[in-house]
């Protein structure tokens, strides 16, 4: 596990543009996506962030790298200023907040840019 985390500090970090993270910019788009995967047993990790949030920007490349490593997991990014209604649905009160969803239901949450905790929870819930 240490080498996985250490790889995030390497210069070869994935940029958000080269990741598998899907960004949603409208509630309609989000609800359509949610309806298509609500019965899926795949783990979905939602990154609730904001452009003005320093810790969000800091963990963004880490989240992108995780999306490339865990190809069986769905990675989503939602800007709380764009989709405040979605953030309210998941009771997001601080950024970043990572919500883990399976079968359409929230199963876990990480509040803050805690990459080790997020990694542990992804590994625990993805199987």
TrEMBL record:
Residue ranges occupied by any Thioredoxin domain in the UniProt entry: 1-127
Keyword Nucleus in annotation: no
GO molecular function: oxidoreductase activity, acting on a sulfur group of donors, disulfide as acceptor; protein-disulfide reductase activity
InterPro entries in UniProt: Thioredoxin (IPR005746), Thioredoxin-like_sf (IPR036249), Thioredoxin_CS (IPR017937), Thioredoxin_domain (IPR013766), Thioredoxin_H-type-like (IPR050620)
UniProtKB keywords: Cytoplasm, Disulfide bond, Electron transport, Redox-active center, Transport
Gene Ontology cellular component list: cytoplasm
Compartments in which it is found: Cytoplasm
CDD domains: TRX_family (cd02947)
Positions in coiled-coil regions: none
Pfam families in the cross-refs: Thioredoxin (PF00085)
PANTHER family reported in the protein's UniProt record: THIOREDOXIN
UniProt similarity note: Belongs to the thioredoxin family. Plant H-type subfamily.
Protein name as catalogued: Thioredoxin domain-containing protein
Source organism of the structure: Aquilegia coerulea (Rocky mountain columbine)
